[in-house]
UniProtKB/TrEMBL annotation, chain B:
Localization of this protein: Cell membrane
Membrane topology: Multi-pass membrane protein
A single GO BP: transmembrane transport
Stated family: Belongs to the binding-protein-dependent transport system permease family.
Organism from which the protein derives: Streptomyces tsukubensis
Protein's UniProt keywords contain Iron: no
Transmembrane segments: 21-43, 85-108, 120-141, 153-174, 195-220, 253-274
One of the record's GO cellular component terms: plasma membrane
Protein name: Sugar ABC transporter permease
Length: 329, 289
C-alpha cells in the first residue's frame, strides 16, 4: 500500500538496460520468476479451491448419486437405479409444482418491460432526482424476504387487508388472495415482480448508459423520431443486456423458494390447511419438503437433478434463440 | 425529448431549467412507480406502530391512532431477537471477510500467474457457478451432521466462505489492472504474494467493496440454509427467526412488522450509505451468488 501507483514504472526492458543486463539474463530471470510463481499460483488458489471442491463440486456428484438411491430408515443408501425418476414422472405433486414454477417464471418475466420502462425514464438526460428514484425502486431488492412476506401477507389479507379495502371502495369484492387457489399464483408473482423490478432496472440502466450518444445523433440526422429511435437504436443495442436479464430472471425464478415458502405459509404448522398450498408449491419447496422433512433424500435429490437439467435446457434454448433477436455491436 | 433533432433552436435546450420543465411526464410516471414500490414498506412501518386491535380495524386507519412502541419491545420477548441479531451479524461478517480474502487470492492467481492446470481448475470454478444452489444442500447438510456442526455458528459460516462467483467477479477486476505496476515490483524481487497484497489488492478496492456488499446482503437475507442446519431458535439468524415467529404468532402482525423492520434495518442502512458501490456491484456482476 505504500507504493505510489501514480509514478509510471519503467518498462522492464528499459530497466534491464539501465541495470546493464543483456537480453539472455533478462529471459533467465523471467523463467525463474515463472518457476517460482507456479507454486504461488497453487498456494493462492488452494483455500478457495479446496473449499469449493469439498462443499460445492463434490456435493453435486454426490447429489447425482443420491438420486439413484433410496435412503434407509437408519441412514445408509441402497442403489435403486432409475426408480426415483420413475416415481417422479408419475407424481402429480411434482407436475403441479413444476407447473406452478413455470407460471411464476412466466409472470416474473412480464416484469422486465416494467424495469425497461423505468430504466429508459431514468436514463433521460438532464433528469433530476434519479438517485432518489433509484433508491426507492431498489429498496425491495435489499429487504429481507422474510420481512417482505410478512407485509404482503398482510396487504393480501382477505378480511382486514388494505388491498381488499381499496377494492371495495370501487365496488369489487376481494378474496383471500394467498389461500384462494385461483389467485395465489398471481398474488405471489406480483410480489416476485415487485422484488425484482429494481434489480433488473439497474442492469438495464447500465446497458442503456453504455450506448454511445452518437447513434442517436446519427438517427436523428436521418430523420428518426423519438419512437423510431427507440426501436431502431435503443432496443437493438440493448438486446444483449435484455438477453442477459431474461436468462438470469428465468434461472432465478425456476429456483424460487424463500418468497413463496413464506407467503403461502409453509413455515407454519398448519401450512397444509392452506387450501391453495398445492397451487402455490414450487419445485424447490417440494425438494425441501422431501429431502429434509419426509426423509426421502434420494427422491429429493432426483427432484433437484431434474430441475438442474431443466435450467440447463432452458438456458441452452435461450442461447439458441438469441441469434434471432440479440445484436452484438 | 426531441432534443436530438436538427432544430435551429437546439442551443436553447441545453439550458437546464427549460429541459427540466418539459420532463414533468417522466417525473409523474417515476413518482407514481416509486409510490407503488415503497407503499408496502411504508405500510409495514405504519402497522408496526399500531396496536393489534387497530391493525385489524375495518376500514383500516392509515396513520396509527396513537403510536404504540411496545411492538418493538415485544419482538424481544417473542424470539431471542438480540441473540439472533448477533448471529446474523457474525455470520454475515465472517462470510464476507473470508470471501474477500479467499476469492481475491484465487482470483489474482487466475488473472496473473501462469501455472500448469490453471485452465482446468478455473473450469471447475465455473462449473460451481453454473449449478443451482439446491444441488449442494443435501451433501452439505450431511457434512455438517457428520462433523457434529448442526446448530452451530460453523454451520452457518463455513460453506458460505467459499464462492465461485466472488472469484469470478474479482478475477475480472484484476484482469483490468495495468500489468506494468506489478512488473516493476517483481523485478525488484518481490514474490507474487507481496505483489498481490501490496499492489494489486489496494487497486482492486472497488471490486472488493462490491463483492463485500453483495455477500453481506445475501448472507444477511439467506434463509434456506439456516432453516436446514440451525433449528434451535437461539442459534438461528434473523431470517429463520422471523419465519418461525410468523408460525408461532400468526395473528400478531404488528409485532411481526416491527421485527421485520428491525431485521432489515441494517441492510437498508448499508445500502443507503454505500449506494454507489452497491449499484456498481450489481451492474458489474449482474448475478446472484
Amino acid at each position: 500500500m505504500s507504493l505510489d501507483v501514480r509514478t509510471k514504472p519503467a518498462e522492464p526492458a528499459q530497466r534491464a538496460r539501465q541495470d546493464g543486463l543483456d537480453q539472455r539474463e533478462l529471459r533467465r530471470r523471467e523463467r525463474r520468476f515463472q518457476h517460482r510463481d507456479k507454486w504461488w499460483g497453487y498456494v493462492l488458489i488452494a483455500p478457495a479451491g479446496l473449499g469449493l471442491a469439498v462443499f460445492y463440486l463434490w456435493p453435486v456428484v454426490q447429489t447425482l448419486y443420491y438420486s439413484f438411491t433410496e435412503w434407509g430408515a437408519f441412514g445408509g443408501t441402497s442403489w435403486i437405479g432409475l426408480s426415483n425418476y420413475r416415481t417422479l414422472v408419475g407424481d402429480p405433486e411434482f407436475w403441479q409444482s413444476l407447473g406452478n414454477t413455470g407460471i411464476y417464471t412466466g409472470l416474473v418475466l412480464l416484469g422486465i418491460p416494467i424495469s425497461m420502462a423505468l430504466a429508459v425514464l431514468l436514463n433521460i438526460k438532464g433528469l433530476r432526482g434519479t438517485g432518489f428514484y433509484r433508491t426507492f425502486y431498489f429498496l425491495p431488492v435489499v429487504t429481507m424476504p422474510a420481512a417482505v412476506a410478512v407485509v404482503w401477507r398482510w396487504l393480501y389479507n382477505g378480511d382486514v387487508g388494505i388491498l381488499n379495502h381499496a377494492l371495495s371502495t370501487i365496488g369489487i369484492d376481494g378474496t383471500y388472495w394467498v389461500s384462494d387457489p385461483h389467485t395465489i399464483r398471481f398474488a405471489v408473482a406480483v410480489v416476485g415482480v415487485w422484488m425484482t423490478v429494481g434489480y433488473n432496472m439497474i442492469l438495464l440502466l447500465a446497458g442503456l448508459q453504455s450506448i454511445p450518444g452518437d447513434y442517436y445523433e446519427a438517427a436523428a440526422l436521418d430523420g428518426a423520431g423519438r419512437v423510431r429511435q427507440f426501436f431502431s437504436v435503443t432496443l437493438p443495442l440493448l438486446s444483449p443486456t435484455l438477453f442477459f436479464t431474461t436468462v438470469l430472471s428465468v434461472i432465478q425464478s425456476l429456483q424460487v423458494f424463500d418468497l413463496v415458502y413464506l407467503i403461502i405459509g409453509a413455515n407454519t404448522t398448519n401450512a397444509l390447511q392452506n387450501p391453495a398450498f398445492g397451487e402455490g408449491q414450487t419445485v424447490v419447496m417440494l425438494f425441501f419438503q422431501k429431502a429434509f422433512f419426509d426423509n426421502q433424500r434420494g427422491y429429493g435429490a432426483a427432484i433437484v437433478c431434474v430441475l438442474f437439467v431443466l435450467i440447463m435446457a432452458l438456458t441452452a434454448v435461450q442461447f439458441r434463440l438469441q441469434k434471432r433477436w440479440v445484436h452484438y455491436a | 425529448m426531441r432534443e436530438a433533432t436538427t432544430d435551429p433552436q437546439k442551443p436553447r435546450r441545453s439550458r437546464r431549467g427549460g429541459r427540466e420543465g418539459r420532463l414533468w411526464p417522466a417525473h409523474v410516471l417515476l413518482t407514481l412507480g416509486a409510490v407503488i414500490t415503497v407503499f408496502p414498506l411504508v405500510w409495514e412501518v405504519l402497522t408496526s406502530f399500531k396496536s393489534f386491535g387497530e391493525s385489524v380495524r375495518v376500514p383500516p386507519t392509515i396513520l396509527p391512532a396513537h403510536w404504540d412502541w411496545s411492538n418493538y419491545s415485544k419482538v424481544f420477548d417473542s424470539i431471542p431477537f438480540g441473540q439472533q441479531f448477533v448471529n446474523t451479524f457474525v455470520m454475515a461478517l465472517l462470510r464476507t471477510a473470508a470471501q474477500i480474502l479467499l476469492c481475491s487470492m484465487a482470483a489474482y492467481a487466475f488473472a496473473r500467474i501462469r501455472f500448469p492446470g490453471r485452465g482446468l481448475i478455473f473450469l471447475g470454478f465455473l462449473a460451481v457457478l453454473m449449478v443451482p444452489g439446491q444441488l449442494f444442500l443435501l451433501p452439505q447438510y450431511q457434512i455438517m451432521q457428520d462433523l457434529g456442526w448442526l446448530d452451530s455458528m460453523q454451520a452457518l459460516v463455513i460453506p458460505g466462505m467459499f464462492s465461485a462467483f466472488g472469484t469470478f467477479l474479482l478475477r475480472q477486476f484484476f484482469m483490468g489492472l495495468p500489468e506494468e505496476l506489478e512488473e516493476a515490483a517483481r523485478l525488484d524481487g518481490a514474490n507474487p504474494f507481496t505483489v498481490f497484497w501490496r499492489i494489486a489488492l489496494p487497486l482492486a478496492k472497488p471490486g472488493l467493496l462490491a463483492l463485500g456488499i453483495l455477500t453481506f446482503l445475501w448472507s444477511w437475507n439467506d434463509l434456506m440454509w439456516p432453516l436446514i442446519v440451525n433449528t434451535d431458535p437461539a442459534k438461528m439468524p434473523l431470517s429463520a427467526g422471523l419465519a418461525s415467529l410468523q408460525g408461532a404468532h400468526l395473528t400478531e402482525y404488528p409485532i411481526l412488522m416491527a421485527g421485520s423492520l428491525l431485521a432489515t434495518l441494517p441492510v437498508i442502512v448499508v445500502f443507503v450509505a454505500m449506494q454507489r458501490q452497491f449499484i456498481q456491484g450489481i451492474a458489474f456482476s449482474g448475478m446472484k451468488g
